[in-house]
Write a structure and sequence with these properties.
Distance between the termini: 30 Å
Radius of gyration: 15 Å
Strand content: 35-45%
Number of helices: 4
Largest sheet: 7 strands, antiparallel
Number of strands: 7
Length: 158
């Protein structure tokens, strides 16, 4: 992963997962599996649309138990199978500018002897958005989602 970043604008999570890269990749890139782990429980993800190419749509809808909905839409910037996914909400499908950019995420999948090192490097345009994302519960929420990703991926191993 590119270590060049402006630390006061970035958030990071890195976890070693005892599941092979190809299975983590499948759980991340297949809508039916991504819906199982994308939103931190008790939220759900009833909708997901993925076109896994640069400029391809990445759209999800998260829903709370009381019915509130949190739609997000963006696009993929870079996709290297089993290695890296870069997506952003600063651009929509076909690289159309978004009216409400919030972050760009660089997700890397590093093959380890016994699994995968999963790293999320999340870039924000300013300290206000970075702080807002952290206060929203970035570390807790994204770690819950990684736990759910692990559960989903392990269910695919069998």
């Amino acid at each position: 992963m590119n270590k060049k970043h402006i630390s006061n604008l970035d958030l990071f999570i890195s976890r070693d997962i005892n599941v092979p890269v190809a299975i983590i990749w499948k759980a991340w890139t297949t809508p039916e599996y991504l819906k199982k782990w994308w939103a931190p429980a008790p939220l759900t993800t009833p909708e997901c649309e993925i076109n896994l190419i640069p400029g391809g749509i990445f759209r999800t809808l998260m829903r709370s138990h009381d019915g509130n909905e949190y739609p997000t839409q963006g696009c993929f910037l870079e996709v290297i199978e089993n290695k890296k996914i870069v997506f952003t909400d600063a651009l929509l499908a076909e690289f159309r500018p978004s009216s409400t950019p919030f972050f760009t995420a660089i997700i890397t999948f590093e093959e380890l002897q016994e699994g995968t090192r999963y790293t999320a490097h999340v870039l924000h345009k300013d300290e206000i958005d970075r702080s807002k994302h952290e206060i929203m519960g970035f570390y807790q929420g994204w770690n819950i989602c990684i736990d759910q990703l692990i559960t989903t991926a392990k269910s695919l191993q069998g």
